[in-house]
Amino acid sequence: xxxxxxxxxxxxxxxxxxxxxxxxxxxxxxxxxxxxxxxxxxxxxxxxxxxxxxxxxxxxxxxxxxxxxxxxxxxxxxxxxxxxxxxxxxxxxxxxxxxxxxxxxxxxxxxxxxxxxxxxxxxxxxxxxxxxxxxxxxxxxxxxxxxxxxxxxxxxxxxxxxxxxxxxxxxxxxxxxxxxxxxxxxxxxxxxxxxxxxxxxxxxxxxxxxxxxxxxxxxxxxxxxxxxxxxxxxxxxxxxxxxxxxxxxxxxxxxxxxxxxxxxxxxxxxxxxxxxxxxxxxxxxxxxxxxxxxxxxxxxxxxxxxxxxxxxxxxxxxxxxxxxxxxxxxxxxxxxxxxxxxxxxxxxxxxxxxxxxxxxxxxxxxxxxxxxxxxxxxxxxxxxxxxxxxxxxxxxxxxxxxxxxxxxxxxxxxxxxxxxxxxxxxxxxxxxxxxxxxxxxxxxxxxxxxxxxxxxxxxxxxxxxxxxxxxxxxxxxxxxxxxxxxxxxxxxxxxxxxxxxxxxxxxxxxxxxxxxxxxxxxxxxxxxxxxxxxxxxxxxxxxxxxxxxxxxxxxxxxxxxxxxxxxxxxxxxxxxxxxxxxxx
Length: 584
Prior knowledge:
- The chain has three helices and 57 strands.
- A hairpin with a 2-residue loop joins strand 55 and strand 56 (572-575).
- The protein folds into three domains: 3-20 and 482-583, Immunoglobulin-like, CATH 2.60.40; 65-274, Pectate Lyase C-like (3 Solenoid), CATH 2.160.20; 303-479, no CATH class.
- It starts with a helix and ends with a strand.
- The protein is mainly beta.
């Protein structure tokens, strides 16, 4: 029997015996399905409400609204006038709306849920006649003032009115959570996708695409004084007439984690215009501004420190700055750029600052460390000033690789050697094994909580040369000898593949656990599995390899597993990125 077959059976056995998550408490469910017969009361799929407006009117705080795939417009329901552009789905306090159910569509379990196969669309296209938009809903959904609501697995789309704000969703003073949602094709004067005034917004696994602020700021999101947290989002193809093609925030705070901001455009700050913000493990790519910074502008009157951490910024284009612009008066915002790769950005109208431009004159207003600035172009110049520029004495830079490095900016550990990227022509900005950026970072670096991974999800602080000493690499990507991927749909009875890539010939172990955790194992990296919970260690084929596993039909779901690989080399080794397998 082959090692791969034995490993497959052991892995399958683990899946079969894993402890189940505690069942959720019983709650009232209101069913909504546009394929249902008229007159339903929402108590089952067969008697589902056809209109979301009717379901919202009948639901009590705490009820869950289960919505089948289909198209739902806010002008349908009792007491609502058809084709009324002012009609909106008003979400009261306690609303919890889950989309993506099969419902009555064809044979099969109506409770089967897959938002990709059964998209639930809350649409402002009232007459189903787009691209004509002058008859669309002005605001598809509105969170009642101060309400706490949660939307999961729904599409909000096609609100349209260039004189209004917040075409697809607007909220004030509330607590709004969006999970696995799509916000798209909204057009407003400001906040084409979302308008948020005060309160709180959390977005997880959300896509904001092709929204527009036709006469103001914030193509995808306009926020005024709110607390915003964004995790694993895609913010792509949005636009603003003024600032913040993707995001525009005035006041409040912003945290963007593990997200992509690409192909957004505005007059200023193509990707985002922010005051106090943190971007962690983000990719800021291909954004454009006709006048200011193509990527992100940090500015405003707030006195606070912003952070750009472990992120990749490339291919952004602006007239005054390429990737980043710290644009604040004395005593204003400060910016830390740590562990980033800033490459191939363009400042069309300036002779400097294609990578980073700072106007903040105070000493240390811009702090850069463990970062690569390379190939940034300011009017055909790729010298040091094209990579970063600021008032004399205002930039503190250490342990960084800067093209054209002259030493005039001071600091320690800086140099100007070719970083030796893997495939820069194909957009692969990881480091080769011969890169001078390996082990070239701050020797005192310790990953702060939340920074244990790089932009690819690999461990920070690995022993790349197996000398049992771990020093952080420069840039957004830590060199690793092993990378892990899980391919396939993790449902009972389905096949998933465990795929390893990396250095050939290294002995390999697969670690599978039932709960995530954080366990630093220097110099090997970080184990992202809670060892106090059920865990197994399996001998595994080394990279490159692929092992197919069938998930048992009788596995009780839902269940989540954490998978991580380990390779050994000369008495040291590397831990891979962790992968979550959510079996549903």
